[in-house]
C-alpha cells in the first residue's frame, strides 16, 4: 500500500488507482495490447482489422469510425516529403462528429516545437500551429452540429492561417515571431494520438489535445494529394466501420465503392457500367 499523499482532497467519488495488474491473465488476440483504463478495468487495444472485447474477430475495415471511449486513433505517412509542406499547406477533411470534443488531425516535429492540430473543442473547430516561435489558434465562428456531415478546408501560408468550415465565415490568425516554416517529422495522427497508451509519444505543450475523436472521418486531402482511408493507415487501434452503404460492398464485378458523405458512387472496372457496375458494356465492333 502506498503512503497517503501530501495535500487535502476537497471532494471525490469512485477514486481508484489504475494498475497494470488488471491486465494480468488477459490475452488480447491478434497483436492486441491490454491497457488498464480504470482502477479495476481494462480495454484491449485491437490492431487494424480486428475487433471484439479480446480482439478475437477479424473484419474488413472500409469506412473508418473512431470511438473516444476505446482510445481509437490511426496514423498515416504524409503524402509527400515534409519539405513540400514547409511554408504552405492546405487540408480538406470530410467528417461527421458524434461528440463535441476530439482530435481530427495532429502532427509534430520531434526535434523542435513545430506542430499542427485540428480539433473539436466544445463543438467549435480549432486549427492550431506553431512555426517554432509561438502558437496560433483559429476558432470557427459557430459550433458544429453533431451527427451531421461537415466539410473543412484549412490552409496555412507562412505564419497566416485560415479556417473555413461549411458555409461559415472564414476566420484568420497570425502566428507569433518571425519563423514561417513548419517541419513535421512525425506521422499524421488521425482521430487521436497514442499518448495515453505509448509513453514515448510526447505531445507538444502548445497543443490542447484533450480527447480522442468520436465519429466518422471520410476524406483527408493535403495539398491536393489524397490520404486514402483506410488503405494508407500505417498503424491504429480500435477502429470500427461506420454505418455506411460501402461496408456492404454494393459495387459488383470488383467495382470500388467511394463514400460521398451518407451516399456513395461505384468506380466500375473496364467493361462495366451502371450505378452498381452490373451493366456489361458492348464491345467495340460488336
Automatic annotation (TrEMBL):
Location of this chain's protein in the cell: Cell membrane
Record flagged with keyword Glycosyltransferase: no
Chief place where the protein resides: membrane
Topological category with respect to the lipid bilayer: Single-pass type I membrane protein
Domain EGF-like span(s) in chain numbering: 19-56, 242-278
Pfam families: EGF, hEGF, Laminin_G_2
Cystine pairings recorded for this chain: 46-55, 268-277
Signal peptide: none
CDD domains, per database record: EGF_CA, LamG
Keyword list, A-Z: Calcium, Cell membrane, Disulfide bond, EGF-like domain, Glycoprotein, Membrane, Repeat, Signal, Transmembrane, Transmembrane helix
Domain Laminin G, chain residue ranges per copy: 63-246
Cross-referenced InterPro entries: ConA-like_dom_sf, EGF, EGF-like_Ca-bd_dom, EGF-like_CS, Laminin_G, Neurexin-related_CASP
GO molecular function terms noted in the UniProt entry: calcium ion binding
GO cellular component, one term: basement membrane
UniProt KW Hydrolase keyword: no
GO BP, sorted A to Z: cell communication; signaling
UniProt name for this protein: Pikachurin
Organism: Salmo salar (Atlantic salmon)
Lineage of the species this protein comes from: Eukaryota, Metazoa, Chordata, Craniata, Vertebrata
Amino acid at each position: 500500500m502506498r503512503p497517503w499523499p501530501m495535500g487535502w482532497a476537497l471532494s471525490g467519488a469512485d477514486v481508484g488507482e489504475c494498475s497494470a495488474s488488471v491486465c494480468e491473465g488477459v490475452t488480447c488476440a491478434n497483436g492486441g495490447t491490454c491497457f488498464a483504463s480504470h482502477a479495476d478495468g481494462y480495454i484491449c487495444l485491437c490492431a487494424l482489422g480486428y475487433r471484439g472485447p479480446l480482439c478475437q474477430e477479424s473484419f474488413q475495415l472500409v469506412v473508418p469510425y473512431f470511438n473516444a471511449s476505446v482510445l481509437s486513433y490511426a496514423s498515416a505517412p504524409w503524402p509527400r516529403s515534409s519539405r513540400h509542406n514547409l511554408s504552405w499547406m492546405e487540408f480538406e477533411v470530410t467528417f461527421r462528429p458524434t461528440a463535441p470534443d476530439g482530435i481530427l488531425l495532429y502532427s509534430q516535429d520531434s526535434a523542435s516545437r513545430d506542430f499542427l492540430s485540428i480539433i473539436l473543442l466544445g463543438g467549435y473547430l480549432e486549427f492550431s500551429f506553431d512555426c517554432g516561435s509561438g502558437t496560433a489558434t483559429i476558432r470557427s465562428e459557430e459550433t458544429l452540429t453533431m451527427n451531421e456531415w461537415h466539410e473543412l478546408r484549412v490552409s496555412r501560408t507562412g505564419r497566416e492561417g485560415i479556417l473555413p468550415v461549411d458555409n461559415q465565415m472564414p476566420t484568420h490568425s497570425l502566428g507569433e515571431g518571425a519563423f514561417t516554416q513548419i517541419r513535421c517529422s512525425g506521422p499524421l495522427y488521425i482521430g487521436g494520438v497514442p499518448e495515453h497508451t505509448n509513453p514515448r509519444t510526447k505531445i507538444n505543450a502548445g497543443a490542447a489535445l484533450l480527447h480522442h475523436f468520436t465519429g466518422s472521418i471520410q476524406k483527408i486531402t493535403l495539398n491536393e494529394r489524397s490520404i486514402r482511408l483506410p488503405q494508407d493507415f500505417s498503424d491504429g487501434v480500435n477502429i470500427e466501420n461506420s454505418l455506411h452503404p460501402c461496408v456492404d460492398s454494393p459495387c459488383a464485378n470488383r467495382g470500388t465503392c467511394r463514400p460521398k458523405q451518407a451516399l456513395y458512387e461505384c468506380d466500375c472496372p473496364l467493361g462495366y457500367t451502371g450505378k452498381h457496375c452490373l451493366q456489361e458494356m458492348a464491345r467495340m465492333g460488336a
